[in-house]
Amino acid sequence: MRIRDVLPLCAAVTAASFLVVGCADGRGDGGGPGEKSASPRSSESPAASPTPSGDDRTWEPDDALRRADRALDAYADDGTDAELVDSGTAYVGSGLDKTFKAPGDRAYRLDITCDTAGTDELTLTLSRDGAEQAYGVGCGDREADQFNIPPGTPFKAGVDPVKDGTGLISWRLNSIAPADVDGCDDDIDGCED
Asked: What pTM was estimated for this model as a whole?
């Protein structure tokens, strides 16, 4: 038998052994060595917290950051001419208290999301020049919430700290062309429905 004749057989045996290992350790997902199982083991992260949805997963900072990035990236290909101005992440235990400059003649869009253990929604307060609006931001959503702010004087975005909270708030401020504003053009002053 030649080596070329044996290679397909070796590949099939290797693939079958990965399936057997995945089933033998109770995962049943066919995952191979080094892959995380779909359900965590108690030894994987002793400091982790349960997720807000009540399932068996635990809240892990790295996983939460990846989910938040995916939620923020959900609008990446929406056809708007968006330019990143600022971005950041804060822990829910610290809250968010950020003032943004809004110069020029392009509109601004604040994309914000949260990923927490035990909290389904946080309250975002947007304010400028005495005007203020509060909005609920869903935690763990697949798409970030978006808020439009016209150019002008600086504005403030705030989320009160969650005492003993576990989780993060992640946001991006983009400048967008006025024609790309979707919905209300000023989520601080608000718009009539």
From this structure: 0.70
